[in-house]
Amino acid sequence: MILVLIDHDRGEIDPLSLRALTAARNLGQNVEAVAIGSEGNALAAIVGEYGATVLHVATHSAITDYTPMASGRALKDLVEKLKPAAVLAAGTPRGNEQLAHLSAFLDIPMAAECSEITLGSPHQVLRARWAGNLIESALVHSDLLVASILSFSIEAQATGGAPANVVTFEPSLHPEDSIVRILSRDSGESKGGITLNDAKVIVSGGRGVGGADGFGNLEELATLLGGTVGCSRVVTSSGWRPHAEQVGQTGTKVAPDLYIAAGISGAMQHIAGMKNSKTIVVINTDPEAPILRYADYAIIGDLHQIIPALTSAIRQAKG
Ligand SMILES: Cc1cc2nc3c(=O)[nH]c(=O)nc-3n(C[C@H](O)[C@H](O)[C@H](O)COP(=O)(O)OP(=O)(O)OC[C@H]3O[C@@H](n4cnc5c(N)ncnc54)[C@H](O)[C@@H]3O)c2cc1C
């Protein structure tokens, strides 16, 4: 049996977990899911639809919101009881963090960001290193494979299965397991105090920005225009920007006066979040990028040259 940790935020599933369920199914064994926290109960239908027959839900008074060490301890309890062949999760920051705690408690290795898995002795994985610039073929020497699935390396495929049977359990937590926990959440405001929801101008960056540092130019342009920075999901999944800035189906849906999409290809999940913008300006090196269909204005070229040039031209125009 393959056990899949479902990444959810207070009951809202991260869709990458559906890909992890699909990856688990591809290993040819029965798939069960586990969600940490009582809000996980709400996920029985969706995990069933993607092939999990059982949804284990860890509940405990110390599990409030996101408590990664407690998750690791709960997973350890479940693993010792169910003895799965592998524990998988989406390669999200939370998925990786919770699996890392599990592996530490079990004192076994964890393979992060895997795009291919072959169970065996040892297990064999292909995994992304250095933000995907290197694909590593690795052997994992442990009976239990603990691995996260590289984001977007596999499409989620529904089986149309029935809702999973929910089995709740109370893990035996230690007092220190809730040392790391969420005390409060900020409102997602940018540095200038403007949220995506109320911004009239959004300068949004995608994978084409190339990394967290590249967003400095976008921030400068956004500030000059009295707006804020947005981004695509690749950017938040890569940890370049916070989730509060993600535009799209699983981010924020926006409709500003001006939406500048730089280095964003135009996946439907991104378009779903910004197509109602009044004016859309696209900056992309690829003249065939799908987002061009939605552009009022397009600049074909390298955003690293175009954005500073725009900033300087606007500065000059403003005197
Ligand atoms: C259930 C689900 C929900 C999702 N929700 C969201 C969501 O809310 N928001 C979201 O954005 N995505 C979402 N996605 C992901 C979505 O499918 C895409 O993977 C994502 O939007 C792609 O991001 P991107 O355009 O930044 O990257 P890519 O698709 O890799 O595009 C990068 C673009 O940058 C261009 N580029 C590269 N270098 C440069 C350069 N130097 N200058 C200019 N252009 C350059 C390339 O030509 C390319 O067009 C979701 C996916 C799923 C399955």
Task: Walk me through the topology.
Blueprint: E1 2-5, E2 8-9, E3 12-13, H1 16-25, E4 31-36, H2 44-49, E5 54-58, H3 68-82, E6 86-90, H4 93-106, E7 111-118, E8 123-129, E9 134-140, E10 145-149, E11 165-169, E12 201-205, H5 215-224, E13 228-231, H6 233-237, E14 258-262, H7 268-274, E15 279-284, E16 297-300, H8 303-318
Helix pairs in contact: 3-4, 5-8
The structure holds flavin-adenine dinucleotide (FAD).
Folded structure, characterized:
With 319 residues, the protein is an alpha/beta fold. It folds into two domains: 2-178, Rossmann fold (3-Layer(aba) Sandwich), CATH 3.40.50.620; 201-318, TPP-binding domain (Rossmann fold, 3-Layer(aba) Sandwich). The chain is built from eight helices and 16 strands. The chain has a nine-stranded mixed beta sheet, sandwiched between helices. Strand 14 (258-262), helix 7 and strand 15 (279-284) form a beta-alpha-beta unit. Helix 3 (68-82) crosses helix 4 (93-106) and helix 5 runs parallel beside helix 8 (303-318).
Short description:
With 319 residues, this protein is of the alpha/beta class.
How many domains? The number is 2
CATH class of the largest domain: Alpha Beta
Considering DSSP H and I runs of 4 or more, what fraction of the residues is helical?
25-40%
Number of helices: 8
Query: Which homologous superfamily in CATH is the superfamily of the largest domain?
Result: HUPs
Q: Which sequence of strands runs across the widest sheet? A: 9-8-7-10-6-1-4-5-11
**Major beta-sheet overview:** 9 strands, mixed
Please report which band the strand proportion falls in: under 5%, 5-15%, 15-25%, 25-35%, 35-45% or over 45%: 25-35%
In terms of structural class, how would the helical and strand content be classed? alpha/beta
What's the CATH architecture name of the largest domain? 3-Layer(aba) Sandwich
Note poorly predicted spans.
Answer: none
CATH topology of the largest domain: Rossmann fold
Average pLDDT across residues?
Answer: 93
Series of H and E elements: EEEHEHEHEHEEEEEEHEHEHEEH
**CA-CA gap between termini:** 67 Å
Rg, rounded, reads 21 Å
Q: What ions, cofactors and ligands are bound? A: flavin-adenine dinucleotide
Strand elements, count: 16
